[in-house]
Amino acid sequence: MKKVILLLILALIIVGVTNSYQAQEQKVIHVLELKGDINKATETIIINAIEKANNENGYAFILALNTPGGRTDSMFNIVESIQASSIPVLYFVYPKGAISASAGTYIAMASHIVGMAPLTTIGACEPILGYDPTTGDIIETPQKIREYYTAVMRSYAEDHDRDPEIAAKFVSENLSLTPNESIDLGMADVNASTIEEFVALLDGVEIKGSVNGEKPVLDTKDATFSYITLSLRDKIMKAISDPNIAYLLTTIGVLGIVFGFLTPGIGVPEVVGVVCLSLAVIANGYVGFEFGGIILVVLGVIFFIIEASTPTFGLYSAAGIVSFVMGSLLLFSGTTGGEGRFFDEGSIKTFWTSIAVMTLVVAGFLVFGLQAALKLKKKSPTTGQEQMLNECGIVIDEINPIGTVKIHGELWNARSNERILEGEEVRVIAIKGLIINVEKIKEEGGETKIG
Q1: How far is Cα of residue 386 from the mean position of the Cα atoms in its chain?
Q2: Neighbours of 18 (CB within 10 A)
């Protein structure tokens, strides 16, 4: 019996060692595909993915990114995670037609391999501090800050065996490169259409920089892929942390609360406003915002409300548009810590479009929609029991003190403080439930007179 137990234990040990050896030999490449702004939400997603690949003894990690840029502090944190990785981090500008602008280029230069899909671009890394709310123009960074970020780019490139002077032009000259240009200048290593092709082309390629103090040559034959999927929380955070979505949530939140105060008793606008504003606070925490921008946006909404409530011939509308646009520009002009941003020209145009559309929607909704609502509120009711007030009718059954009155072909139970005979005319002076209070129409000087 003892021999049997010993044999079973020995067999289990052999199986465990064999499985462990096979697991170590299996080359699993973890892949994260991501599109969007570099902010606190995407920073968390990327760093967690790199840690997951390391913790699961992955062979390498691929960051397939399509980004216009974003926060500088998030970019530095991602680069720090790449530098701490014990497995190679392979950067891929993907899919076809994607961009890796600004902050994305810094991450690329800090990675061990850079690949680009067809029709993609990389570069355009000139840092900006935000937007001038008075003109909408980009606020350029001081020269010393530009020199700092130029040195950072040069350092990343130099540490990863790339020409630091060419890399520096990404910042100093806002240089952008196509896949072929990048490969010719040594800023990228391969041009591939798919992730599978990207990995296949890396077989036998030595990484740029080092991992654990070594420069391994990649052996990607028979490698398997493990695609990292985002959790529901990550998907929500990533969606609302888009600057355009965060801006939309902020605007709807403010409108909902303001409209709720103006229309008490409905409840729906307040609920929508609070939910959107709560999401906006979370989103703005990831994106980074200026509190002064929110104040100006709210002030713009107030001006629109005043315009709708008073005949000012457009004075408050003009003030509202100026305040709303300036507040919108200031809202995402920087980050809460003042770290600055990197954005490409296309992202700036998109945000400008969002501002223009929302300004027109808000102004139109508040000035014209609210104006119509206020007029409707002042208008006398045309339906329901209220329309019976001051209506005239004929007594069908004597009122003493209750009888029947015919008004517009309808019979009503009527009450009066005086006796009114059948056939006499009466006027409705009050309504209490299903009974109307009436008074007799008196005749004076041969003319019928009400009251």
Answers
A1: 47
A2: 10
Look up tokens 């409705």; give the residue.
Answer: 428
CA dist., res. 359 & res. 64, Å (int): 35
The gap from C-alpha 73 to its chain's centroid, in whole angstroms, comes to: 19
Beta partners for residue 140, in sequence order: 128
The closest alpha carbon to 69, from 38, 43, 97, belongs to 38
CB 119 within 8 A of CB 100: no
- What DSSP letter does each residue of 159-196 carry, written as one string? HTTS-HHHHHHHHHS--EE-HHHHHHTTS-SEE-SSHH
Its pTM stands at 0.69
Of the residues 144, 377, 379, 432, which is catalytic?
144
State the burial class of residue 121 (Cβ atoms within 10 Å of its Cβ: 0-12, 13-18, 19+): buried
Please give the Cα distance from 104 to 75 (Å, whole number).
8
N-to-C CA span, the chain: 116
Q: How far is residue 307 from each of residues 203, 256, 310, 311, measured CA to CA in Å?
A: 67, 18, 5, 7
Question: 221-230: b or e for each residue (b if 16 or more CB lie within 10 Å)?
Answer: eebeeeebeb
Beta bridge partners of residue 130, listed in sequence order? 139
Active site residue 100: no
Give the Cα separation of 288 and 292 in Å (integer): 12
* More confident position, 135 or 248: 248
**Catalytic entry in 74, 85, 100, 102:** 102
- As a dihedral over the C-alpha atoms of residue 239, residue 243, residue 246, residue 248, rounded to 10 degrees, the angle is -110
Specify whether 102 is catalytic: yes
Number of other CB atoms surrounding residue 256 within 10 Å: 19
Phi and psi angles of residue 194, each rounded to the nearest 5 degrees, phi first: -130, 170
% residues pLDDT > 70 (the chain): 76
Strand order through the sheet with 224-227:
190-191, 113-116, 89-93, 60-66, 28-35, 224-227
For residues 113-141, average pLDDT: 80
Contact present, 238 and 42 (Cβ < 8 Å)? yes
Q: Given pLDDT bands bounded at 50, 70 and 90, which one contains residue 16?
A: low
Calpha distance 316→299 (Å, rounded): 11
